[in-house]
Every structure is written in structure tokens, then in C-alpha cells.
Write a structure and sequence with these properties.
The complex is a heterodimer of chains A (about 625) and B (about 100). With about 625 residues, chain A is α+β, with helices and mostly antiparallel strands. In chain A, α11 crosses α12, α11 packs parallel to α13 and α18 packs parallel to α22. In chain A, about 35% of the residues lie in helices and about 10% in strands. The radius of gyration of chain A is 22 Å and the shape is globular. Chain A contains 23 helices and 15 strands. Chain A folds into 3 domains: about 200 residues, Aldehyde ferredoxin oxidoreductase, N-terminal domain (Aldehyde Ferredoxin Oxidoreductase,  A, domain 1, 4-Layer Sandwich); about 180 residues, Aldehyde Ferredoxin Oxidoreductase Protein, subunit A, domain 2; about 150 residues, Aldehyde Ferredoxin Oxidoreductase Protein, subunit A, domain 3, CATH 1.10.599. In chain B, strands 2-1-6-5 form a 4-stranded mixed β-sheet, with no helix packed on it. Chain B has a two-stranded antiparallel ribbon with strand order 3-4. Chains A and B meet through α8, α9 and α11 of A and β4 and β6 of B.
Amino acid sequence: MKAAGGYLKKVLRVDLSAAQTKTEGLPEEMAEKYIGGTGAGVRYLYDEVPPGVEWNDPKNRLILFSGPLGATRISGTGTFSVITKGPMTNLAGCSQANGLFGAYLKLSGFDGMVVQGASSHLAYLFIHDGKAEIRDARHLKGKGTFETEEILLKELGLGHRGSVQCIGPAGENLIRYAIISGDGGHVVAHNGMGAVMGSKRLKAIVVARGQAEIPVKDKKAVERLTRELHEDAKSKGSKRIYEAGTGGGFSAAALGGWLPVKNYTTNLFPEHAQFDGQYLRTHFKMKHNPCWACQLRHCKTCEVTEGPYAGLVGEEPEYEGLATWGPVIGNTDPGAAVMLNRFNDQMGMDLNEAGWVIGWVMECYEKGALKKKDLDGLEMTWGNVEAVKAILERIANRQGIGDILAEGVKRASEKIGGEAENWAIYTHTGAAPRSHDHRGRWCEMLDTCVTNTSTIEATRGGVFPERLGYPPVFDKFSPWEVAMINAKENGWLQFVDCLGICAFCCPNRELTVQCTNAVTGWDLDLKSATRIGLRIVNLLRVFNLRHGLKPEMERPSVRYSETPKDGPIKGRSIQPYFSFMVRTYRELMGWDPETGRPLPQTLKSVGLEELIEKF
Amino acid sequence: MPTSKVRLEFWMADRLGFDQPGPLILEEAVEEGESLRSLLTRLVARFNNFSEALFDPETQSLSSEVSILINNHINLSQGMDTKLQDGDKILFLPILAGG
């Protein structure tokens, strides 16, 4: 059904090799079948990046898309998706960031943009008033992400009317887990998309907030649903996030056995209370830093008030930043975590993978597998935060040991070899786990190993089947239940990632579908929305199979799945059941259990018959 | 009949159906050999939002959004039928997304 609202029906095409930009139409079928955001991006990726094109080939596409809810006044609709073929997996990557960019892109006249080619020199893109210019960025070479943002907003006289998405030195130097960062620390984290941008010699994308009229089918319904969706998020699904940020779950993670500590060598972190969001928000000085139209307002900057980093101002770290720069590296000072969080973002790297790399280095140092002379003289003892800062800088610039570590912990541990290979936390596809101890969260370990997006696909922090009207989980460590519930849940989150809205702002599924219908005029329900999400999952799966995904890659590394030695999950062993879970999950997804290939009837059921003979 | 005492700790109690932020600590008397299921069924009658947030007495099931640990361990071999003993510490944790 044709959309009566939510779309400008324009896509910006940027060819950096030809130094040209142009406006294309957004095909009607694209909106109807793939919605926007991740969905639209995946379709462009599939159609335009054939097998044989590697992640750093100029023919690879970097696709950025908002969605039909983007730039409305619904809470958190500045979110956008980035889709590309990424260097950690050399398969598809889909990652989201919040802030302002998605809304500003729409207000400047575009639903999304597709970047191809590579510039002959470092460049940035400036989008304004419905057009785009490719400009020289050589004066920004080597600059950190925050610095780059500040310079460009000032140079262009934009202030708060501008949104910058850029790379730091890590992206320029093609670190495999380089990020795209923008709007003061909102990060496109997964699968090294910053390195893809760096391979195109594209330092930044700047968009000036325009005046485009965003069509909405039923304005009154959207107004009412905006209130209802937010009230629900604030009082129910995202209550803790509203009150204490994502760091508000830190102590629960420590007590429940899903906090990662010292490269998974232990599960005990008695200092957890001083890292919890409740502590930070009552001890550090906080300032709001909200995203577009967001009433949840969980994003903040903070000033450290205690310890050696007192006076430092940085973004309030999300849970994963607190976990990585706290217990993963053996640090017990939350102020130091704020410092490292900011520094790492400035260098431009995914904190998840950076944490697994550095935690592994620290364990190697402790056990003598790496010595000071191997680490450019750095003493990588647990909790040595200044040494961590120094090694992050070396990684971002590929100096000394940094050059090996820039390849990610899987490749680095394979290069070092010996027993140290068994201490690294990774998946065999290359998708980096988030900063949790997934041995205490089996649904997420399975999801991370079999995902087609290069990050979590079906789950978000857990599985909540009651939200779909199913019975609850009886045993979170039952291989039967984990496999079944992950398969049953899959599809919904990929639909949400098409809309241009922050997932924290829309935990209520019914209201989210109603919002979508009110904006677009469609008549979706939960079932049809999830079917669209499954279409995207299967399209990604076929893309990845064509680009080299093998079934044996879908498993955790030795350390990632090692039986915990202490703490709440001591003795809980996932290894004996993992391949059963994967095969069962595939079967329930309608894929061959041994090869992981979608069956013809599955592709037909999600409207992808055209792909049946294609892989 | 001899009774035992168990300690219940509700981390982030307001997410678990109570009217106050956590942690909330309760000492409860339990019958010898009483199960976790039986205890939670009794608590539903006392606390208004318990059944919505934590435990549904009709289906006798715990919400997917909650984890339970007994004596700091998540390994409840008998699940909700785990028999409680004098001095047991039961921790209720909401499951949160990270991010």
C-alpha cells in the first residue's frame, strides 16, 4: 500500500570517485517492502554490492537512512541506520546511532543517502538545502571525532543547526573496529563502519537542518500516540533508563552474572555499586544532552567529581562504556571510565572490541605471553588506565603493537598464537560481542554468533516473549527455550530499525505499530510488521551467504564460551549445547539446520521468491 | 510446624512491582520445605503490582523480565519448585538491556 506520509521520496547519491552528487527518487516498492532505515539500506546493499567486492573496495556502499518516523515530533526520531559491508566480518553490517542526524537529513530533503567510490583526497560532504557538496577535508587529517565536529560546525557557521558524523584517526587508518561518531558522542559502533568511511577518504558528513515539510497522514493520532508511547516508555519498558541511564543496570548485571570482568577470567566485581547509574547521577554533575524530540532524555554529559580525574567533563558512559572501561580492564575508578570513554570515542573506535582487545592484552601480560618489550614498553597491568590510554592511541594510529591490535582480537590472538589464542573473546564470524558476560545471558550469545547484522539481531538485552502474547521464559539456561524464543522473537527489532526511531523510546510494540500507521496511513499489525522484519533478516542472510558466510563460523571462541569459574553463574556450561541451539534455531527460522541456508518456502513466505535461485 | 526465615532482596524494587525504588529487603517466615513458587504466590496477595511485574499466580510463572538467584547463585535446579531453607537469601533482579 502506498505511503501517504513519512517520506520525502528522495535519496542522495554520492559518487566520491567521480566527485559528483545527485538526487534520486525513492522507489515506492522500497518504502512499502523495506520501509527505510536498515531495511532500505539492506536492499540497496544487496542490489549494488555483488560478491567479490570487499569492504574497502570503492565499489562498496556506505548507506545512511532515516525512516518514516524520522524528524516527526515522536520521541527519539533522530535515529538513523548505517548499512555497509564491514571489515570485522567482511559481511553485511547494520548499526544505528541516535542524536540529530537522521532528523536533520530528512529536514534537509532526503530519506537517506548512498555513498560509493572513493575520493582522491580526504574530503567531507556538506548537505544543505536539498543538495550536497564534496569539500576538501585535508585540514582535518588526524583530528579526533569531537575536534572534527567542533571545527566543522564553526567553519560552516552552523552551531546547533548542524549535525556532523565523522571518523577519528582510527577510521582514517582503517582500524577494523573504527566507528562513525556524531552529535557529541552518538556512535555507529559495529563492524568497523568508520574504516569503510576511511577507505573512501571521507572524513565527515555534515548536514544543516533544513525546513522540509515531513508529510504525516493523521496528525491528531500522531500527537496522541507520541504522548502514549512516551508515557509507556518512561513508566514501564524504559523506566530504569529514564531514571538512571543504561548504567542503571550495572549492579544488576554484576549480581546476576552478566557483567564481564577481566576478560572473563572472573565473574566477581565487588565495586559495582560505584559504577551504577544511580551512583553516577547522584555523585557526578550531570547535564542533559537530549536527542531529537526525545522526552526520555537519558543521554547526558557529566563532570567527574572524585578521584584523580575530578573536573573532567565527558559523556556519561552508557552501560557498555562503564563495563568496558571498568571491570573488563580491571579498573575500579568510575572517573577513569569517563576519561577512557571520551578518549576512545575521540580516537574513533568501537569500545566493545577495544575492550576485548585490551582485556586480552592485559591477561597476556599477566601470564607472560606478552612482555613489556612486546607492548612498546607499556605496563599493561589490570587497571592501569594511563597505559590503556596510551595503547588506544597506538592502535588508532597503527603504531608499534597497535598495528597488530588494530586488526581486532581474533586476528591479533591468531598472530600471537600459543595458549594466548584461547583467551580471546570473539565470534568466528568476526561480529564483536557487546560488553556483557554472555555466559550469563545465553540468548544473547546465540544471537551474537548467528546474527546477520554483525551485532545483536533478535534480542535486546534479553527476550520478553510475553510482549508477543507468548508464555514467559521458564529457564533462561535451557538450550531448547533459548533457541525457540530467539527464533520466535526475531523480526520485530529489525522492523523497529527501519523506522528511524530510538529503540529505547518504543518498547511498546502495539503503540509503535500504531505510530507507524498514523504517520504513513498503512494498516500494519504486529504480525505484518514482524514479517517485514523477517524479510530483512532473510535478505541479509542471503547476502552474507553469497559473500562467504559458512555455517561453521557461527560459534563462539573458546574463551567466549568457557565455563565460568566463580560468581552467580559458576559452573554453567554452554559449550555442550551450543551447536544444538544453533541447529534448532536455524530450523525454527526456516533455514537448513546444517548449512543455515534459508529454505525456498521461507523466502517465499517473506516475499523474497526472487532470491531462491540466487545462492 | 517449625518455620524458617528467608531474606528477600528486590533490586530496583520499583521495577518489580513495589512502590519504592530498591533495593528493598524483606524477612519472610516460610514453612519447612516450602517452595519458592508457594512463597511468591503468598506475596502476590500482599503487594499490588507484584503479579504484573514479577509473578503471575494464575499461570504460576515468573516474568521473563526477572532473574532470581538463591544464595548468590542462579542455578535453581528445581526451578520454581526449589525448596527454601532457613537462612536462604533470595535476590530478584530485573533484566536490563545494557546499551
